[in-house]
Design brief:
about 375 residues, alpha+beta, Phosphatase 2c, domain 1, 2 domains, 6-stranded antiparallel β-sheet, 5-stranded antiparallel β-sheet
């Protein structure tokens, strides 16, 4: 099982900062994810400070396996006090889940999360713990196990209250309305990406708002338990020529989607597996176009394309691109678990003999791509050198 995460946030109209904060992190060693959604009091800079403080502190406590009930009380005691309302306030939802489907959730003040399982909305009964120091604040604690294809949706109250007092929605979307929206979307789009659902929720909240303009900060966080999509990327020839056939068989036997980045790499695979490479003569922008080989989902040029992939991922600037780097990024982002197999043989076309081998260009670029995929896109990534 693999927990996929999607998120979407909109700022309140005429504000320069998000009043909500969502932080997510995946841990390779423990196959665990932690996510926090916090909604700061009011909107704008003050709300941003409150929600960011809350999210960062709770993430830190969760990372260190601290008692979340005690941690939540510490956070509530630590928030600065609003001079106007004389309260320190930031609502939050903390989610800890692993790839076995075990989930722990602690919520305070946010709309109750929605749990979709096997075609139905499931209502779970929480353990409720009253805050020791803050009247009218109560922690809701949940511990349960997800099934494959289960969905969890968390939102700030800017979503459930969207459209409040309008002619069509006197009480806003409400949690009940959100449940209907969620169920309808999943039934119509069973193979959805969590980011798509999160965006769908905030877009609907914006649409029903006065003049289709957000009257509050709006955020949605979506978790989905799925069978992991696996991908393998080969780049660079293996260090030992005697291992070419074994190296090629590992590629051919891989159960998942496969990509090749590098002409020499593709040539060795084609030779060892008795395959043909079909060169695409069309333009790929400033990069060589994608080629084709039986048993591979995508074949690209090597270091130039990978360098461009790294640039695009760093800048979040690739949606409108039309080249081999964009196609390789789409391949990567469609997967949950990505294995890079990097050939340790130095390519004389790119290697500077004055540089130590450990900073040889291909390896350096792959390390950067792997870090971006893990930190920004929450992929599970491994890098193996051969």
């Amino acid at each position: 099982m693999f927990i996929r995460i999607g998120k979407s946030s909109l700022k309140k109209n005429n504000e320069n900062a998000y009043g909500d904060c969502i932080i997510t992190k995946r841990y390779k060693d423990s196959d665990k994810i932690i996510a926090v959604l916090s909604d700061g009091l009011g909107s704008g800079i003050k709300a941003n400070i409150l929600s960011t403080m809350t999210s960062v502190m709770l993430m830190g406590f969760a990372e260190n396996n601290a008692d979340l009930i005690k941690s939540a009380e510490i956070v509530m005691n630590s928030l600065p006090v609003c001079k106007i309302r004389n309260i320190s306030y930031s609502t939050f939802s903390v989610i800890i889940a692993d790839n076995e489907g075990n989930v722990s959730i602690i919520e305070e003040g946010n709309p109750d999360f929605i749990y979709y399982s096997k075609g139905n909305i499931v209502e779970l009964r929480p353990e409720i713990i009253d805050s020791k120091n803050h009247k009218n604040r109560h922690l809701k604690i949940y511990n349960f196990t997800l099934n494959e294809q289960d969905v969890l949706v968390f939102v700030s109250d800017g979503v459930t209250q969207a459209g409040l007092a309008s002619e069509q929605l006197r009480e806003g979307i409400t949690r009940e309305g959100l449940k209907r929206i969620l169920k309808e979307y999943i039934e119509k789009t069973p193979d959805f990406n969590p980011d798509d659902l999160a965006n769908h929720i905030t877009n609907i909240a914006r649409y029903v708002s006065f003049h289709h303009i957000p009257q509050d900060d709006m955020s949605a966080l979506v978790l989905r338990a799925t069978k992991p999509k696996k991908a393998l990327i080969y780049t660079g020839p293996p260090y030992n020529n005697d291992k070419d056939f074994e190296w090629a068989r590992i590629f051919d036997d891989f159960d998942g989607k496969k990509a090749v980045a590098g002409g020499t790499t593709a040539g060795i695979l084609a030779r060892e597996l008795n395959r043909e490479i079909y060169i695409n003569q069309t333009s790929g922008g400033s990069l060589p176009a994608v080629s084709f080989m039986e048993g591979a989902d995508i074949v690209t040029e090597g270091i130039l394309t990978l360098t461009r992939v790294c640039e695009y991922l760093s800048d979040d600037n690739f949606e409108d691109k039309k080249d081999a780097a964009k196609e390789l990024i789409d391949f990567m982002l469609d997967a949950d678990c990505i294995d890079f197999v990097v050939g340790a043989k130095v390519n004389s076309a790119h290697y500077d003999p004055n540089l130590p081998i450990e900073i040889e260009l291909r390896r350096d670029v792959i390390k950067k791509i792997a870090k971006l995929l893990k930190d920004k896109y929450l992929k599970k990534v491994t890098v193996q050198y051969m």
